[in-house]
Write a structure and sequence with these properties.
heterodimer, A: 349 residues, alpha/beta, Rossmann fold, 10-stranded mixed sheet, two-stranded antiparallel sheet, 12 strands, 20% strand, B: 611 residues, Pyruvate-ferredoxin Oxidoreductase, domain 3, 6-stranded mixed sheet, 19 helices, 19% strand, globular
Chain lengths: 349, 611
């Protein structure tokens, strides 16, 4: 496992197709605690967008409230962003995507934002197969309010001041699978080699791509007895499937042994090459995904691309949206005019 | 035939021509709404001004429901407070319905079953028609019998009041154009009632006689009209959560869009409607769509506004346009969901925590629902803020007779200050919340159009450059500018409607929304008694400067509204120089559409007490 050092200061960063370096994909300086897992995820976003050759202004960042939601200011400084209210980011993303499906929507949320106050909106965004990348920076605690358990806290995990959680956790991965999510992954803020390709694949996925990223809170949840600490995560971390993302114009050059790799073409361009690192898991098989999670429950933290389905229509298709985004249709096409109104009035007489 | 044929004479009652009220008491879920609508519309088709008020329960089947048809040659559209002919079809509400008949009026009941309390009133004409018996012998199917009983009383009422059966027939033919098999049984049922009356009774002294007063008018519900306004305003996105009495607004939008907004070539929709999981989500979607530069809206009612309040504050502070239709119903809490009220005035004016003030538009009838919904989208984008259209159940769900809507093809939407790609090319740097023009309104951009237009929208403290701040002065500067922006909107929003009395007076009546028709008629009635009032109707908040000036010209201003706490009065005291003692509340929060008689009585008695 490798990590990305923060801050990025490499002066020799290569330029991508738009003549932009990774620095052009950064945002304002992070105000999170030193060593916060979220900053590593921010760095992974920067690298993924740069490598994908996305124009920053064609991305839109959406978030709710919490440490995780603050991070949308720390990457893609040249993109528009909207930091909404607690737990309600999916609805804002839904409206935004409905009227302009041509932007890349990146949602950043936390376990409090998505699994407690925002559970309903998270669930319904999945049902609509909203075309967006939705990253949950999962640390098991409320950081900004100083260390209360979140809904993802495992049974038996110990809070900083000794309290033990006895309530059952909500696992966003299993929840997303149950609700019919079409791209479900789990990763760890400390593994950029796994996380960066997952972010790329999630962005290119057509539909709702959720990545649950275990992201330790160094201040309130990194002690002995916590199941969301760095030490615990490293110990039980279990990469199951590695997803390489290969952009459309690049040839697949890596050498995969027979039967080891699965190529999945992405609707929004490029391919995902899946490499099984351990089990015989096929992420196209939903039942197998449930089995995998069940079999490793309580022992290990399975990570990688757990499930993918590129065939389901996303929200825009379900609503028969036109090729021209709704926010760009000329008024003359939208307003039926006086002659039509006159006819309509006859129907009320 | 076991019928009580009491053709008691109505005494000296003069014949009322095109000026009376028919009220129908029924059980809900029996399909009476369509029969009642048919009756009302047939009067309209005879060229006679008419309005129908549906007073229905929050229930699918079995509870009492009423429909009141006011025939008014003078074109008054409010409830008059009288009942000249009661069609008492519901045993449960029979006693109440009997009492409601005005002296000298008439009551029609289903004489299939005896009603011992019939003799409770000597001052009215009672007409028994064996509706169930007749329709049961004519029709086999149980549901058909129920439906046809309604058509039979329509026929009876037509015979009693002289409504032209040919007009009714043509309406039946229009109604069942898609199901022509239903025309014959419906006509048969109508004739059963009609013929029974002509054979057994004389017509009542209530006459519908043809006029030529409706040809420039339509019958339309406010929600449907508002939906049409959204189409004409160019709204492309709507999100909602079903709630009575706002649901028919989105139904209307969908219906209009399916006809007017499907691209003929691609078959794709130039609109998007999302049924959200709750109102919190609905307003979030509307904010997202507006943030992305599409005109979007949500229809809801009071409980929805309560849920949306956090997001409304976000849109206010982050300056994202949004149009919110609040079709008010009776509160607090679940209240009486199918009854009307103006109980959300203060809620809409100041919705959300912290210092928030909103733009609120108040339509008085469906025509204004159409017009003000177009204005609402303009105001939302001009001022980059949520705009409420405060309608109510009476306006939204009843068919009102209003002049035909008109559209000026030269009207272009006011999209406010938006910097597009070519504008952004010309400037060095874009700051989202900078007051370039000194009018309190900053420029905005549409995400994705141009790299220079990118900005970060937040509900957390921000400075005029759009950056996060916890600096007191930088925070206050933005908050103060937003207030200035709101204040400056006052005289650019639709101004008040003012009507001067025939004689100089220091008394006035001020009202809002759906009370308009009842108050204007009450003023006309009281003028006949020698009481004169100037009149003002508020159309928008923040209040136009003319409202404060109007109040200042009077010693007493009666503020008529449909809530317990005098919310409009409170808002006037809070936001204008009006003195508390100047403003006298006239309140009707019964849940029923405004009643001319009641308003006139309350104001008259106050004036008499004053001397």
């Amino acid at each position: 496992m490798t990590s990305i050092k923060k801050p990025l200061v490499d002066k020799h960063l290569r330029k991508n197709r738009h003549g932009l370096t990774q620095r052009d994909y950064e945002g304002v300086a992070s105000t999170l605690c030193a060593g916060c897992g979220h900053d590593s995820i921010t760095a992974a976003f920067v690298r993924a967008f740069h490598e994908l050759d996305l124009e920053p202004h064609r991305a839109a960042k959406v978030s709710g409230i919490g440490c995780s939601s603050k991070t949308t200011a720390y990457f893609l400084g040249q993109s528009s962003g909207i930091n909404t209210v607690h737990g309600r980011m999916p609805s804002v993303a839904t409206g935004a995507a409905a009227v302009n499906p041509d932007l890349h929507y990146i949602g950043v949320s936390g376990d409090g934002d998505s699994l407690s106050i925002g559970l309903g909106q998270f669930a319904h965004a999945i049902r609509r197969n909203l075309n967006m990348l939705y990253v949950i920076e999962n640390n098991g605690v409320y950081g900004l309010t100083k260390g209360q358990f979140s809904a993802s806290a495992d049974i038996g995990t110990r809070a900083k001041y000794g309290e033990v959680n006895e309530q059952t956790p909500i696992d966003p991965v299993r929840l997303a699978l149950t609700l019919g999510a079409t791209f479900v992954a789990r990763s760890f803020s400390g593994d950029k080699e796994q996380l960066v390709p997952l972010i790329k694949a999630g962005l290119m996925h057509r539909g709702f791509a959720v990545i649950d990223v275990v992201s330790p809170c160094v201040t309130f949840n990194d002690h002995a007895g916590s199941t969301k600490s760095y030490a615990h995560t490293y110990k039980y971390y279990h990469p199951v499937i590695h997803a390489d993302f290969v952009p459309e114009e690049k040839e697949i050059t890596a050498d995969y042994a027979d039967g080891e790799a699965i190529t999945i073409p992405m609707h929004n361009g490029g391919d995902v090459i899946l490499r099984k690192t351990d089990t015989s898991h096929d992420p196209r098989d939903r039942d197998a995904a449930f089995d995998l999670l069940k079999n490793l429950e309580g022992s290990e933290i399975p990570t990688g691309l757990i499930y993918i389905d590129e065939s389901r229509p996303e929200m825009g298709e379900m609503n028969h949206l036109p090729d021209t985004p709704l926010n760009a249709i000329n008024h003359s096409k939208l307003c039926p005019g006086s002659a039509t109104l006159k006819q309509l009035m006859d129907g009320y007489a | 035939m076991n019928v009580q044929t009491q053709t008691r004479s109505a005494g000296s009652t003069a014949v009322k021509i095109n000026d009376f009220v028919i009220k129908i008491g029924n059980v809900n879920g029996t399909g009476s709404a369509s029969a009642n609508g048919l009756l009302m519309k047939s009067i309209f088709r005879m060229g006679v001004p008419v309005v129908g008020k549906n007073m229905f329960p929050s229930n699918i089947q079995g509870l009492p429901t009423w429909y009141e048809i006011r025939v008014s040659k003078d074109g008054w559209t409010a409830r008059s407070g009288d009942v000249d002919l009661m069609v008492a079809m519901n045993l449960e509400s029979y006693e109440q319905d009997l009492k409601a008949v005005s002296p000298g009026g008439a009551l029609l009941y289903d004489s299939t079953w005896p009603r011992p309390k019939l003799h409770g009133r000597e001052d009215i004409t009672v007409i028994g028609v064996p509706l169930a018996k007749m329709t049961n012998s004519e029709f086999a199917n149980a549901r058909t019998r129920v439906l046809m009983k309604n058509m039979a009383y329509v026929g009876a009422v037509a015979a009693l009041t002289g409504i032209d059966m040919a007009v009714i027939q043509s309406l039946v033919e229009d109604t069942f154009k898609a199901k022509p098999k239903l025309i014959e049984p419906n006509m048969n049922a109508l004739m059963l009632g009609h013929d029974y009356i002509t054979q057994n009774y004389e017509a009542l002294p209530l006459r519908v006689e043809p006029m030529d007063e409706t040809k420039d008018c339509i019958l339309i519900e406010g929600n449907d009209a508002a939906a049409l306004g959204c189409v004409y305003a160019g709204a492309t996105f709507g999100a909602w959560y079903p709630i009575t009495p706002s649901t028919s607004l989105m139904d209307g939008f969908k219906n209009h869009c399916q006809k007017l907004r499907v691209d003929p070539e691609s078959g794709k929709n130039n609109y998007c409607i999302i049924q959200a999981e709750d109102e919190l989500s609905a307003i979030g979607m509307v904010i997202g769509a507006n943030w992305n530069g599409a005109r979007s809206f949500t229809p809801t009612s009071g409980p929805g506004i309560s849920l949306m309040s956090e997001f409304i504050g976000f849109a206010y502070y982050a300056e994202v346009p949004a149009v919110i239709f609040d079709i008010q119903r009776v509160g607090p809490s679940t209240g009486m969901p199918t009854r009307t009220q103006q109980g959300d005035i203060l809620l809409a004016a100041y919705a959300s925590h912290g210092d928030t003030k909103h733009i609120v538009l108040f339509p008085a009838d469906p025509k204004e629902c159409f017009e003000l919904s177009v204005d609402a989208f303009d105001a939302a984008e001009r001022y980059q803020t949520p705009v409420f259209v405060l309608s109510d159940l009476d306006i939204g769900m009843n068919e009102w007779m209003v002049p035909r809507f008109e559209w000026d093809d030269s009207r272009q939407p006011d999209r406010g200050k938006v910097l597009h790609a070519d504008d952004l090319e010309k400037i060095e740097k874009f700051y989202r919340y900078f007051d370039h023009d000194g009018d309190g309104i900053p420029y905005r951009t549409i995400p994705g159009e141009h790299p220079k237009g990118a900005y970060f929208t937040r509900g957390s403290g921000h400075n005029k450059f759009g950056g996060y701040t916890e600096d007191s002065a930088a925070y206050q500067e933005v908050l103060d500018r937003i207030l200035q922006k709101w204040k400056k909107a006052a005289d650019h929003l639709p101004g008040p409607v003012i009507q001067k009395a025939a004689e100089p007076t220091r008394r006035a009546i001020l009202t809002v929304g759906g009370c308009d028709a009842a108050v204007r008629e009450a003023i006309a009635r009281m003028a006949l008694e020698g009481l004169h009032f100037n009149y003002l109707r508020v159309k928008a908040f923040p209040f136009h400067s003319g409202i404060e000036a109007f109040i200042a010209e009077h010693d007493t201003v009666f503020v008529v509204e449909q809530n317990r706490d005098g919310q409009l009065r409170q808002l006037l005291i809070n936001e204008t120089a009006a003195e508390k003692k100047q403003l006298v509340s006239i309140l009707d929060y019964s849940g029923m559409p405004a009643d001319t008689g009641l308003i006139a009585r309350m104001i008259t008695s106050h004036c008499q007490a004053e001397g």
